[in-house]
Design goal:
A: alpha+beta, Alpha-Beta Plaits, four-stranded antiparallel sheet, globular, B: alpha/beta, four-stranded mixed sheet, 10 strands, 35% helix, 18% strand
């Protein structure tokens, strides 16, 4: 499953996408995220999945516009820390329709 | 009927229903799903995976009471009690605050599962138009989520926005859809997506003498356009369905279909017997139905234990 956490600001539509089929639940993204919005735990979308998975914390979902903005492609470090550290390459970051970097 | 001056135009009617064809006392597994949304609350009761009863109410100021009210409303005509329910799952915005629920599951999975049950396994894209946010979901033939996308917006372009708009122009919310087509020419859409700004834009349009029906059309197309943005990115596949309250507003749905070039599936039960027996079809039930079905699956798999007290 691909979980897209999106936001929109003056510079466009942005999406942080996590491919849960690739995610191995190692939790490295959680550590490197500068604003600590990621969490690794039981998959709440696919309730039958046994392994833990990375997701954006509940209370942070409506605020990704502020928390993820510093890592936006063209603004922050590229690729973003979460995408860089992810060994199974589950993270991607895109602007609207175009996947700017990431591993889809 | 309330006095016209004090009438609240956003107040859509609450409904409940009990299946006359099922005797719940003979049922083995009775599961319930309570979908406490930001605007509406639905409680759905299913007996062995068949729809038995539902209650669709407006959410009050606190989630626990809304859940209790919704459940009470669903059980009202049935003779069943909360104690007779094997497993209850809470979902929606207020899912962690459902007192009778044994577990909570996010509304994304529940709507996907519910749409699969309501519209059939051919459903590939589900758009849940809720009260305060909208989600676009791609699903497989078993109702499993493949890809989802949610907006970070508030009430912009969602059900609550429509209610606020209804109140502002003093037209009952269920009349906006049909009336938005009684126009000469399709007007340009409302440009703001924020409800507060849209409201002031509407007030401006009213002052400029624009006919009410045209303003409704402008608001509906703004909302349709707003949903388009999400769907375009996700990729819409047929069968495409809309769940949630906005699905009942043809003004938005028809304009969205026109922009997308894809028709939404007919709002009828996939199960033939439900159609033949004349079961009411309510797009708002998807979350509750999905939750109840998950409850049944969890019980069958032995991942959950029955909490039945009587």
């Amino acid at each position: 499953m691909i979980a897209n956490y999106g936001f929109k600001d003056g510079s466009g539509d942005w999406y942080v996408a996590i491919d849960t089929d690739k995610c191995n639940g190692c939790g490295k993204c959680q550590e490197v995220c500068p604003v600590k919005i990621l969490e690794v735990g039981p998959d709440e979308i696919d309730i039958f999945r046994e392994e833990p998975v990375a997701f954006v914390k509940h209370e942070e979902r409506k605020k990704v516009r502020y928390s993820c903005a510093p890592c936006k492609p063209g603004y922050g470090e590229e690729p973003a820390p979460c995408a860089k550290v992810c060994e199974p390459k589950a993270f991607s970051f895109s602007d609207g329709w175009v996947c700017l970097y990431g591993h889809k | 009927m309330a006095d016209v001056k004090t009438q609240e135009f956003w107040r859509w009617p609450e409904t409940n229903w009990v299946s006359p064809d099922i005797d719940w006392k003979k049922g083995k597994l009775i599961t319930a799903g309570v979908d406490v949304g930001s605007v509406s609350t639905q409680a759905v009761i299913m007996v062995d995976g068949e729809l038995y009863a539902y209650g669709n109410t407006r959410t009050g100021s606190d989630s626990p009471n809304s859940a209790i009210k919704g459940m009470g409303f669903a059980l009202e005509k049935s003779g069943m009690k909360i104690e007779n329910i094997d497993y209850c799952i809470g979902t929606g915005y207020g899912r962690v605050n459902v007192p009778m629920a044994q577990q909570s599951i996010t509304e994304i999975s529940c709507h996907a599962r519910g749409a699969n049950f309501m519209y059939g396994p051919e459903v590939r894209t589900v758009m849940d138009m809720g009260g305060q946010d909208c989600k676009a979901i791609n699903v497989d033939d078993r109702g499993k989520v493949l890809n989802f996308m949610m907006n970070d917006k508030c009430a912009a372009g969602t059900g609550r926005g429509m209610e606020v708009f209804a109140d502002l122009i003093r037209v009952p919310v269920w009349e906006i859809g049909p009336r938005s087509f009684q126009i000469q020419k399709e007007p340009p859409m409302i440009s703001s997506t924020c409800v507060v700004f849209a409201k002031s834009e509407v007030v401006g349009l009213l002052e400029s003498g624009m006919p009410e029906n045209d303003i409704m059309a402008a608001y509906c197309s703004a909302m349709a356009h707003r949903i388009m943005e999400l769907l375009n990115r996700l990729g819409v596949k047929e069968k495409f369905v809309i769940t949630g309250g906005i699905a009942k507003n043809e003004g938005v749905v028809k304009r969205l279909e026109k922009e997308l070039g894809i028709k939404t599936a007919d709002r009828v039960w996939y199960k033939k017997e439900y159609v033949d027996r004349g079961y009411p079809f309510d797009t708002q039930l998807a979350g509750g139905i999905g939750a109840a079905l998950f409850g049944q699956a969890l019980l069958k798999m032995g991942k959950a234990k029955s909490a039945r007290k009587a």
